[in-house]
Amino acid sequence: MASSKKESPLDTALTQLRRAIDQLGLSENDWNTLSTPRRILEVAVPLRRDDDRVEMYKGYRVQYSTTRGPSKGGVRFHQDIDLDETVALAMLMTWKCALTNLPYGGAKGGVAVNPSQLSERENERLTRRYTSEILPIIGPERDIPAPDVGTDERNMAWMMDTYSVNAGYSVPGVVTGKPIVLGGSLGRTSATGDGVAIAVCEALRQKKIAQDGATVAIQGFGKVGYWAALALEKLGLKVVAVSDVKGGVTGFSSVESLQKFARENGTVVGAPGTETLTNTELLHLPVDVLVPAALADSITHSTAPGIKAKVVVEGANAPTTPQGDQVLNDKGILVVPDILANSGGVIVSYFEWVQDKQNFFWSADEVKENLNSIMMRAINEVAETSVSKKVTWREAANMIGVGRVAQAHRLRGLYP
Questions:
Q1: 10 Å Cβ neighbour count for 415?
Q2: Which of 11, 12, 36, 77 sits 20 to 30 Å CA-CA off 181?
Q3: How many Å is the Cα radius of gyration of the chain?
Q4: Residues with catalytic function
Q5: Can you list the domains of the chain with their CATH numbers?
Q6: Considering only CA atoms, which of 6, 9, 7, 4 is closest in space to residue 295?
Q7: Nearest-angstrom CA–CA distance, 171 and 384
Q8: CB 252 within 8 A of CB 270
Q9: Is the pTM of this model over 0.85?
Q10: How far apart are CA 412 and CA 416, in angstroms?
């Protein structure tokens, strides 16, 4: 009898790595090296609440690989994060950076806390204490954090300040996703969504579907979903439905008007002139493109059969389970995998890091031009590998990313 136990994100990531290693013909030594995180730090993070109570939270920082450069990855504040998920996300960051040919390894970190239950002062205290706990292993040449679920440019400003105070001088390059006035980059806020839009347009071209007027449904209306929706609307596509954690809507006049309503009301549900639908109903709309841009595991063996989109572009990390992925492949749906589709964020984070190192800052047009160049190069590589190796885009992306890290390991050798 088949086990009903749900596969963890780490199990899924390791399964994908094993398949890439087998497809590349790599050795068992390569598997042993690539399946093991370089460094794991688990910390206790005390927080003094505003009422003077002291609470303890678990914090993590996983540096999965530093073979191709300093490790890079976000800091997540979410009550459900654990070590296995953090290792899995750090592993995916490793392949993502290699796929886009950035000089980074992969990392991830966070605190198991619900940030919506913290006051701003509590959030600052928690961020600064977490930073001080991981401070010995981060730095602009070691490991560069960035915003993720539950964190934003405020948290990055506090992290940068905490690190800088301890260093005795300002170190803007220790984090990316900072406010512009502290060394942030133009285009960073919208970068992941802009990258998703580039991936959508190229996937439509691959499927020979006209871009102008193509219909899109987006699950998630946060840092990724909103900016992707805005960019796609400006490119002439028709965003027909979006959703957030409370549900979805169709029939809105524009993405910007919907965002204005959501800012004022905390949800897109109930916007004037719209019809409400569930998140699952959104997945099953008859659209050209579906963009899952919320949390993981939204496309599963139970939701995938009803998907009618011709293209799925993964704006979120790991939104599709292996079983759901198989259903989409069997239906002939082109899936642009997360490590390719949502790489715009880390690409522009790289630009920010470069600008901080040079103390020379780019225009918004330069950022967008360079983002488009790197995204298109990676997309074309994946498409060509998919055809030449007769594999899916997900398999092709993993093969390219894993292959580059394995090659770097071999060239550096084993010390001592």
A1: 4
A2: 77
A3: 21
A4: 108
A5: 37-182 (3.40.50.10860), 185-359+367-416 (3.40.50.720)
A6: 9
A7: 41
A8: no
A9: yes
A10: 11
